[in-house]
Amino acid sequence: MKVIHAADLHIDSPLRGLGRIEGAPVDDIRLATRRAFSRLVDTCLEDQAALLILAGDVFDGEWRDFNTGLFFVRELARLRDVGTRVVMVRGNHDAESVLARHIPLPEHVHTFPAEAAGTLELPALGLAVHGQSYGNRSVEDNLAEFYPDRRRDLVNIGVLHTNAIGSAEHSNYAPCTVQQLVRRGYDYWALGHVHKRIVLNADPWVVYPGNLQGRHAHETGPRGCTVLDIDNLKIRSVAHRDLDVLRWAEISLAAAAAADTDDLLGSLRLRLQQIVFEAGGRPVLARVLVDGATHLHARLAAHPEPFAAQARAIAADLGDVWIEQVRFRTRPPAETEHGELLALHQALRDELEALAADPQRLAEYGPTLAPLGALVAPFLGTRPDDPERLAARLPEVEALLLGLLAPDYPHPRPPAHVPAQDPPPPRASKHPEVQ
């Protein structure tokens, strides 16, 4: 008997960063969360699953379109026709939606209440499923401590939307520990809320399946569901199944060892080829980060567009691959930071670190930067007078400014009357613009 565990579907959640991806099939990509859920239902049908467990965040807050709910109901109806039962809890995003709480679901779907944890016994399947939904977005109580006792002579499965690992990437809702879950004596905990697949314990099983579909550049790699094989009241195997329809990747290029930009681009091509192979025919959306101390810093920081354009050309040559963004966090090699520049570099870094730690101080730069918005926005990817967005990009601001200060930054050509073969006239500073 197969039981399938999925969570964090976020159906119709907007995928971030699509506006920056020139030439990508944006309309198809926007349907990725729906298509991933359809693949989940297909998997249930193919495996003849007896039960589908949805561990919260089916939806993504308040719907923009009632068709989101209708789509969900239509897909669930496909399971009713073959006798697959569905149990679900509502997570923090589901609790935000008025429509999600009131849309009528098919009779083969059981939603656990929010008032207290309950139990659904399915003796014909040899299962007892325990769960509790969120009544509102912010649930700070430890719900796991109050789940029902295990049922004898049945396989016991707990369904909970929780931050059981103290992840800083996710709000600390329904916090608990793995030890508290294990103490309940259940055979399997079907968790949701953390979007990365994690097996927290194997005896008994405590599993986050991850979300069905990565939605931005920080949700990289395979995404999907977990399939349980149960026989004679024992869980015989627990396995991941890929269901994502497109894949996000984050590529970090170490600039320190690169002789030139061709070296960096060659490394990028190899990394993209590997990711395309691992994606198994899925389209790939990639974010590229060029990082490290390098003699190429001045060129990359002052003129990032040529490298980004060549990176996108490599991706286009490989097929259904698009570069979502190219970021630069390079710096000059330590040996170039000498003399009068050392103090200037350090002062700049100190100022940017202080701004990152003090949003109010950063906001004070807004009025000064506002007139430069149209000019500087291409470098920053956003308007410089938006403190919240600028704070996240301060490392790139540092790279850009240090590039302008670097000793090998291109300087104005000598006046036309100076013969090309003559040596340049002596100057008091290495930087003619600072006298």
TrEMBL record:
Residues 406-435 are annotated as: Disordered. Residues 412-427 have a biased composition (Pro residues). It holds the Pfam family Metallophos. It comes from the Bacteria. Keywords: Exonuclease, Hydrolase, Nuclease. SUPFAM superfamilies: Metallo-dependent phosphatases. The keyword Hydrolase applies. GO terms for molecular function: exonuclease activity. Residues 1-196 form the Calcineurin-like phosphoesterase domain. This is DNA repair exonuclease.
